Amino acid sequence: MLLRRVYKQHRWLASHVKFLSTQKSSIDIKVDNDGIAILNLQRPPVNSFSMDFLKELSKSLDFVENNKITAMILTSAFPRVFSAGLDINEVYKPDAVRFKEFWTTLQEVWMKLFGARFITAAAINGQSPAGGCLMAMSCEYRVMIKGTFTIGMNETSLGLIAPTWFMELVKNTINVRDAEYAFTTSRMFTPEEALKVRLIDEIAADKDDAIAKCKRFIKKFDEITPSARINTKMKLRGPAIKKLQNTRQEDTEEIYQLVIHPDTQKVAIFQLYSSPVSANPAIITGYDPMEVCIENCAQCKKMLGAWFEGQLCAESCIKYRGKMIPDCENYASISPFLNKL
Ligand SMILES: CCCC/C=C/CC(=O)SCCNC(=O)CCNC(=O)[C@H](O)C(C)(C)COP(=O)(O)OP(=O)(O)OC[C@H]1O[C@@H](n2cnc3c(N)ncnc32)[C@H](O)[C@@H]1OP(=O)(O)O
């Protein structure tokens, strides 16, 4: 009887979710026949977390919770990127009110994901720096697919400091020494290295295999009394959530002050238009024509939008070390970076 009700509910959810996912959403939710919700992140190009995307993730987590779905797997619809982390556009020249709302939304998503009553697992099917790593780390189990992808906390390479609650989470997952080394040096881990320090729990051949392995983890709880599982999880995770709840405003203010610091802004603009994970921001500290060059690329991108190849422009600044600075109002200087759409 109970089984029949659960099955019926899953069938209803499956059709309901299909309806939701036709609304051009950035998250595709499918509830499979085992009653597991698969959340596919699909915000082009790289699943970076803008405020709207975070709000959608927050609603998706509510959907899983409110419909009493027992487990969720977080993954990406893209073949090479799980998530590029926070959207640098939210960090570059931020409006104070918007940035604070953005950060508050991130805190809220983290508390919902980390403190979810349902079982959570991440199938990490591509690059997963910074905020991407945060989302995966907030789940109870992580499976990463093998390949040339990396995962890690590269905040310091962007001139940023990860929030304390993220540092605590990593310190409680891998050992303190590895966490300190990884955070301070912006170390990115290959899947094999990540497994060695237990940043992830398993390696998979591909996305299907990663999802199958996440499901195998979820299945383990068939043998465990649900209330015992939930209460144990809450006892383990509750104090960290409470700590953030009590310090949300200070946390937001601290991050905002950090983000608006001129050094952070220099790196943010570089990050926006160059090849990020491997970038060395040291090359743009202090006055530098290259810095002006990259700033101008950003300006042209703002003015011309999709017509302008911002990354190509930044790469050209780097290649020619700022010797050819684009002028957005001079066609000849920007024509190499204009595309035909
Ligand atoms: C607020 C401070 C508190 C501290 C917390 C910080 C946490 C963070 O998450 S900060 C963000 C950290 N993220 C990164 O450093 C990753 C940056 N991106 C990459 O390394 C790469 O893009 C990638 C490895 C994820 C993917 O590489 P791939 O070669 O496939 O794609 P790209 O050509 O590099 O990028 C395509 C496209 O996407 C734009 N983009 C990439 N990352 C971001 C991002 N985080 N935010 C916004 N936009 C991003 C990139 O500029 C390209 O755009 P165009 O096609 O328009 O040039």
Automatic annotation (TrEMBL):
Complex and partners: Homotrimer.
SUPFAM superfamilies associated with the record: ClpP/crotonase
Organism: Danaus chrysippus
Pathway stated in the Swiss-Prot or TrEMBL entry: Lipid metabolism; fatty acid beta-oxidation
Full protein name: Enoyl-CoA delta isomerase 1, mitochondrial
Listed GO MF terms: delta(3)-delta(2)-enoyl-CoA isomerase activity; ecdysis-triggering hormone activity
InterPro entries hit by this protein: ClpP/crotonase-like_dom_sf, Eclosion, Enoyl-CoA_hydra/iso
Compartment annotation: Mitochondrion matrix
Recorded catalytic activity of this chain's protein: (3Z)-decenoyl-CoA = (2E)-decenoyl-CoA; (3Z)-octenoyl-CoA = (2E)-octenoyl-CoA; (3Z)-dodecenoyl-CoA = (2E)-dodecenoyl-CoA; (2E)-tetradecenoyl-CoA = (3Z)-tetradecenoyl-CoA
Cited CDD domains: crotonase-like
Function: Key enzyme of fatty acid beta-oxidation. Able to isomerize both 3-cis (3Z) and 3-trans (3E) double bonds into the 2-trans (2E) form in a range of enoyl-CoA species, with a preference for (3Z)-enoyl-CoAs over (3E)-enoyl-CoAs. The catalytic efficiency of this enzyme is not affected by the fatty acyl chain length.
PANTHER family, per database record: ENOYL-COA DELTA ISOMERASE 1, MITOCHONDRIAL, ENOYL-COA HYDRATASE-RELATED
Superkingdom of the organism of origin: Eukaryota
Record has Transit peptide as a keyword: yes
UniProt KW keywords: Acetylation, Fatty acid metabolism, Isomerase, Lipid metabolism, Mitochondrion, Transit peptide
Any GO BP: ecdysis, chitin-based cuticle
A GO-annotated cellular component: mitochondrial matrix
